Amino acid sequence: MPQNADRAAAEWWRSAVIYQVYVRSFADGNGDGIGDLTGLRARLDHLSTLGVDGLWLNPCYPSPQADHGYDVADYRDIDPDYGSLADFDALVDEAHARGLKVLMDLVPNHCSSAHPWFLAALAAAPGSPERDRFLFSDGRGPHGELPPNNWKSVFGGPAWTRAAGPDGAPGQWYLHMYDAAQPDFNWRNPEIADMFDEVLRFWFDRGVDGFRIDVAHGLYKHPDLPDWHGQGFNEFAWDQPEVHEIYRRWRQIAQSYGPQRELTLVGEVWVPTAAALVPYLRDDELPQAFFFDLLMQTWDAALFRDSIDRAFAAIGSTGATITWTLANHDVHRAVTRYGITERQPHPFPVTAEVAYMRPRGQVDVALGERRARAAIMLLLALPGSHYLYQGEELGLPEVLDLPSEARQDPAWARSGQLDVGRDGCRVPLPWTTDAAGFGFSPSDAAEKPWLPQPQWFAKYALSEQIEDAGSTFALHRGALRTRRELFSAADGDITWLTHPGNRPDVLAFRRGNAVCVTVFGDEGFTVPATWGEMQLSSQPLCDRVLPGGSTAWTRIPRLRN
C-alpha cells in the first residue's frame, strides 16, 4: 500500500491536515451576523492551538449568495460581506506567519446569473458569442416550451430554465446542473479556459497555496446533450474525457511558480468508484482529490476496511496522496450520521450520494459522539492528507430542527421543502457561553447570526472544552500532536493485523512503529502486549479499548538486541 514516502517530505500537502473554514459561519468581526475575514483573522490562533497545517476557505468572492458563494459574480475580488482584498492579503500574511497554508475554493463548473458574462448572454441573440460562453439551447415541443433534454438538477427539479429573449418573449433554455442562479459554463469555448487561467494566477500571485476545485468532475458536458435514462450518476453531464486537459493545464500553471511554493490542487471529484478517480490523479493532473468513499460508509468495521483498501488499491498506484475526510459543508455532521440507530427512507427520490450524505433516522447523539471521536482517530492514523471541517473539533451534531423560514439552502426550496439540505452543518460556531450568539459576533453586534443557533450549542462551545482534558476539542488537539510524534510522513504503508479471536468488529493496523485499534462493537478489546503501550484513546485511557466506538493508538516497544 505505497504512499510515496520518498516524496512526502518535499511536498507539504502529502501529509497535511487542512481545516475547512466556512467563512460565513466561522466568526463575525463586524457585528452584521455574517462571518468574515476580520473574524477569521481574530480566531487564527484557534487553528494554531488545534495544530492543523493550513486552512481552506469556502468561496468568499462577490456573489448574490443564492448558494452562499458557489454562485460567483466576480472571480477576482472579495465579497463585501466578507471584507476586501486588503483583508484577504492580511489574512494570508497572518496565516503564513503562523506556519499555516491558505487554500481557496475555485468554482469552475458554473458562475452566478449575476456574472457580467451571463447578463451579456441574456441580452444577446441566440447563436451569439456571448451565449456561446454558456449552454443555451432551443427547447423541444411545438413552441420550444419543453426543456432540451431530461437532465435533473442536483438540487432537484429540471436542470434547465427558459430565458426571455431580448424582446421579452420566452426564448432559449440554459443549463444549470445546480440552481437556476448558477448557469453552467460552456467549456468547449476556449474563452472559459483562458479566463480561469488568469483567475488561478491572480490568486497564486497573492500568496494562495492552492485551490480546492468545486465539482471537478463537471465542467464539460457531452456535446450532443442527449437524454439520460440511467439511474444516479449522469454519464453525459459528468466525468467527460476533455476535463483532463484542463487539469494538465492548471498543473502546469501551479508548477510554474517553482518548488519553493509547492502549490496544490485538490479536486472535489464525485465519481461512482475509486477506480474512476484514478485518471484525475495522473502525474500531470491533480496532485490530490478527495476520497469520499470512506465518508459514505455507515459505522461498520468491514465497510470501513473495504473502503480503506479501495483507497490504497486505486490511489496508491498513481503517485498521488490519499486525501481523506469525514465531513464538509455538504454533508450532515459526523456525530449525527454515526449516531443514527434506525435509518428511515427519504420522502422523495435521492441519489445514493445524498442518501449517505444526508441520511434520515433516529439519532443517539451520545453514541454518535463516541463513534465520531473514534472515527477521526482512525482517520488521522492513516497515511495521507486530511481535511477537517470546522466544528467537528467541537463534536457538533447536525442542527436538524431549523425553522422552515430560516433555511436558505436552495436544495430545500427546489425539493419542495422535502430535502432539509445543508444548513444544519453550517450554523455559526459557538465560541463561548458568556456572550450573545455564543461569541460568534462582537458583544455590540447589531444583527443576530445569519442562521439561528440552538440553545444546546452551549454544551459544545469552545470555552466549555478548552480546559477539559476529556473534551472533543482536547481529543483533536492531542491527536494532531501525537500523530506527528507517532507517525512519520515516510510511513506510507499500513499493515492489517490479526488479533485474538479475529473479531469482525475490531480493526487494527500497523503504521511504522505504531498501531491503531478501533472497536466498532459493544464489547471491549484488550490490546496484546506485543502491540505496545497506549499513547492516546478516543475514550479515557485504561487497560483496554472500550466498547461502543473507540480508537486507541499504541507505540510498539523497541526490539531488544
Give descriptors for this structure.
8-stranded parallel β-barrel; alpha/beta; 561 residues; disordered N terminus; 18 strands; 5-stranded antiparallel β-sheet
Describe the structure.
The chain is of the alpha/beta class and 561 residues long. Helices cover 25% and strands 15% of the residues. The chain has 15 helices and 18 strands. The protein has an eight-stranded parallel beta barrel. Helix 7 runs parallel beside helix 8 and helix 12 packs parallel to helix 15. It is globular. The relative contact order is 0.11. The N terminus is likely disordered.
Give me the number of helical elements.
15
Q: Which geometry do the CA atoms define?
A: globular
Radius of gyration, rounded? Answer: 24 Å
User: What share of the residues lie within helices?
Assistant: 10-25%
Distance between the termini: 29 Å
Question: What class do helices, strands and sheet pairing give?
Answer: alpha/beta
- In the sheet with the most strands, the strands line up as 1-2-3-7-8-9-10-13
Mind describing the biggest β-sheet?
Answer: 8 strands, parallel, barrel
Low-confidence runs of at least 5 consecutive residues: 1-9
The chain-level mean pLDDT equals 93
Strand content of the residues, in percent?
Answer: 5-15%
What topology emerges from the helices and strands here?
Layout: H1 5-8, E1 17-21, H2 23-26, H3 37-42, H4 44-50, E2 54-57, H5 85-97, E3 101-106, H6 116-123, E4 136-137, E5 160-164, E6 170-175, H7 190-205, E7 210-213, H8 243-255, E8 264-267, E9 288-291, H9 301-315, E10 323-325, H10 334-338, E11 340-344, H11 352-357, E12 360-363, H12 365-381, E13 385-389, H13 410-414, H14 462-465, H15 472-486, E14 495-496, E15 506-511, E16 514-519, E17 533-537, E18 550-555
Parallel strand pairs: 1-2, 1-13, 2-3, 3-7, 7-8, 8-9, 9-10, 10-13
Antiparallel strand pairs: 4-6, 5-6, 11-12, 14-15, 15-16, 16-18, 17-18
